[in-house]
Amino acid sequence: MLKGRVLSAVLVLMISLAAPSYAQDADMSAILKRLEKLEQENKRLNNEVSSLKVAVQEAQQKAAQPTEAAAATKIKPVVTTKVPIDMYGYVKGDVVYNDSAADTLAMNAPRENTNKDNDEFNFTANETRIGFNLGGLDVPGGGKFLAKIETDFWNGEESTAANTPQLRLRQGYVQFEQTKWDLLLGQTWDFISPLNPSTLNFGIAWRAGNIGDRHPQLTFTKKNTKLLGGEVTTKFGLIDSNDDSQERRGFPIVGAYTSLKRKVLGKTTTLGIGGMYGQAEVTAISSDVPIWAGTVTFETLLTNKLSLKGEGFVGQRLNQFRGGSSIGIAHNKSVRSTGGWFQFAYQATEKLQTNIGAGIDDVLTDRQAADSTDLWGKNVTYFLNLKYRILKNVVLGIEYQGFNTLYQDGVKGDLNRIQSSVIYEF
User: Fold this and answer.
1) 8 is in which domain, residue-wise?
2) End-to-end Cα distance, the chain
3) CA–CA dist 211, 390 (Å, integer)
4) Cα–Cα distance, 11 to 35 (Å, whole number)
5) Type and span of the H or E element at 267
6) Are 363 and 334 in contact (CB under 8 A)?
7) 103 and 30 in one domain?
8) Least confident range of 49-63, 149-163, 252-266, 394-408
9) Shared-domain flag, residues 68 and 94
10) Least confident of 159-163, 309-313, 405-409
């Protein structure tokens, strides 16, 4: 408005100064009327501009707000939690053929004349696995809390009903993590023997050279220690074997494990040594028997495509740790055993991997002939498998595994096992 009036005044002044003398007698009223008309037109234009600005602002605000239809189609999360969760696992379908009848895990061969040559064929999806990593809860002053829940459908040694396998806990623990150390409470893998062969067989050479399962434990880990040109990790812990005779002793098993990871001839190599000790109460003799083990582990990269790993052990009463047959006590004494396993893994291409290995569980305890069917003297396994990744998340596998078992009374058993698998990872 002010600009319009100033402009009108300037125009009047200019006309007055520029007009020749004869124009002084002109009709000044006509000029003033025209200027008034121009001023009214200017006001109208200003009002229209203001109205347009308001309309544009309202349109922008309306566009920024979702419509009811859009809000109704917005995807909502299935699960809302207070912590970040990473879900993982796989669905695994297996087809298994045995040339002699054996348990599903088949970690020893049937005795001669006992299910010998009685072949069997079965399907299973019990190894299907679901896991959740819960993590990232920072603690004031440093460190953070992590947790894990992992399940499958084996329900112990075997599911009791083939068509209705039951869910069971594989791992479940809470972990407090610092830069230099960790503290873990719950159920996870036995830290004294951390490696496993890469078999399609769910039994991973248990009782055939590979000891170590998952047990409740309290574990302290000291990590990132520099020594001998490499990195040293040390674990100390208390283990519950889930065996009544050990729990009745009133004290858990004590264990320790140390590993050194460093370059050897330019290739990454890890060496480890571990051990544990505890006792079990034998009610029959009102006495205690020892539970102990010593382990050595190794893992090395031989070439860019070929790797080698394995473990060795010696100990007593290791039945709860998948060693020394399924018998832990004989003649009221702990069963003694020794053994180990190794595996070569060759990554031929990004999609194709092959694994070949063997293991042995050698029981040192002698038993009477009447008891020999419960305890073997030696159990040997050997395996070869191929795994091919047809898609990013889908793996096809085929495996041959053999078992030769020598029982305490001299009777032998042989088993040939062929397994094929389809694994859908997520």
Assistant:
1) 2-72
2) 70
3) 32
4) 9
5) strand 267-282
6) no
7) no
8) 49-63
9) no
10) 159-163
